[in-house]
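Predict both folds.
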Amino acid sequence: MKALTSSLKYFIVQKLRISNQEAVSCILSGRVLVNGEKGQLTQVLRPEDSICFDNQYLKEAQTFVYLAYYKPRGIESTLNTDIQNNLAQTLNFNRRVFPVGRLDKDSEGLMLLTDNGKILNKIIHSNNHQEKEYLVTVDKPLTPAVLAQLAAGVVIMGKRTRPAQLEQVDATTFKIILTQGLNRQIRRMCYQLGFGVQQLIRLRIISIGLGNLKPGEWRYLSPAEMENLNRNLSAETD
């Protein structure tokens, strides 16, 4: 999300309709506070910043919503209310939030939703290899050779998938950690090796886990979860 203005000084000039010189005087004298602290002349403003002038708010802090949601099987990952079983209806949340990525109709598990476009775009448009973890149950017993192939990469849609971390859970179930998000990737990988997917649950996106959520339930992300997520996203740009 872009900064609101080029600087705090410009914001004060526009908001109070005063000259540049008057704005500089107000800021340097400490009459302008940004998030409770003395403002700086060239300070770039963010939507989440609050601005006070002589103890009166010129701008309230914009707060964002971050949700972890267990998408049930059969729900479409869309906010389009013209589509049956859409996300907006089943989520029934009182603010408009947007899904971070998709989870196909036949799959279930963790989805992140937010109204913070900066976070959303960072995750969706990242060029880095972000981890997503899934629990997969197939229609017949797994073999060591099949597990090794899934981990090493399988050719689907004309390209080989990236190597993945794999852990067998039981005869027909495994956990897999992917670092890419090709369309219906896990189902296509399994199909290519002669297996049908009976259940697919997304357990984790980057550092955010599904936790104890049940299908159809949602929760707010905790401050610690947001701190970890932001740390992971910041590390990608370092």
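Second protein follows, with its predicted structure tokens after the sequence.
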Amino acid sequence: MQFVDTNIFIRLLAKDDPVKSEKCFRLFKKAEDGDLELHTTESIISEIVYVLQSKRLYNLDRDSIGKKLSVVLKIRSLKIPHKSVIISALNLYSKNNIDFEDAILISHTLYSNSKEIYSYDRSFTKIEGVKRLEP
């Protein structure tokens, strides 16, 4: 089992180092072709979003991040626990003014059919199908 770290995704998506970017492209191409199975985690995906949106680093907008990253996440041989939840969270993040971590929580909530989140964060009320509760 082989895991992929944040910086490999960043080199692939940002294309800021041509040599490393090409190597990363070939790695993900092997996965896309079914020749290799790659694994990563929810926290790595969250870090990718954080780095790409960072004003000091790449300063990409939500829509660009969503489009670029969703293409990679849809590679069948890229394994992520709760992958459909993560893809849904990326969609929520790119279309709403919410943090990616909040989008992950919302997606987990919606997938669990709970629909309720305890939080003082009022941004949860923006999302249809979610009810924000306070203790």
